[in-house]
Amino acid sequence: MITIKNLNKSFNSKQVLSNISVDFEPGKTNLIIGRSGSGKTVLLKSIVGLHEIESGEIWYDDVLFNKLDFNEKKEIRKEIGMLFQGSALFDSLTVDQNVRFPLDMFTDKTEEEKKDRVNFCLQRVNIINANNLFPSELSGGMKKRVAIARAISLNPKYLFCDEPNSGLDPITAILIDELIKELTEEYNMTTIVNTHDMNSVMQIGEKIVFISEGLKCWEGNKDEILDSDCTTLNDFVFANALAKQLKESL
Known about the structure:
- By secondary structure, this protein is an alpha/beta fold.
- It contains eight helices and ten strands.
- It has a six-stranded mixed sheet, sandwiched between helices. It has a four-stranded antiparallel sheet with strand order 2-1-4-5, with helices on one face.
- Strand 4 (about 55-60) and strand 5 (about 65) form a beta hairpin.
């Protein structure tokens, strides 16, 4: 469980997030949605500690994360997996080395234990016989799956995904969504996905938080979103549906 209470964040006196409160539940895919510039990425980065907040509370289970010092936060970060937009694999490292990276940084496992864990994670995301390939030799979907393997290498309690479907074709995007949902349920992780993709919302949106102009305007699930009485949310959903129709007609 990750709990946010009355979170406020600003840059150069400009308020970006205002009084955000929400619970992100374990074993569920929790989605943060909103237009570009709505504040959803700032919220995600604030939760993981990449941005310092002005006020409010960020709880990881029973630990008040934003009041910890650097070393104490590092202990929590050992339990965090992160899937970055664009995958963010190290171009100069092989698939094997990319997945090993968190194990080398945060554990004292033996070489044999690391090898076993890397192979297990790659097999879990259906990457076979690709350990010695470099990112430049992978398709976009394979890069995402390798990035997911790296994100789960430490068996995290918390998984953060920033626009996981960015740049993917619709079929591959669905496969990535399904993989994230499967892993979330399998390991009972608290997973937070930052997205503007309504396909993802309708596919895996078990808990959805809609952010607009720095405010939490709505929360619910994929079965409730189409019946919302939130005008701003309805405009967002309609704009996404229209954009999808236009793209498919081209």
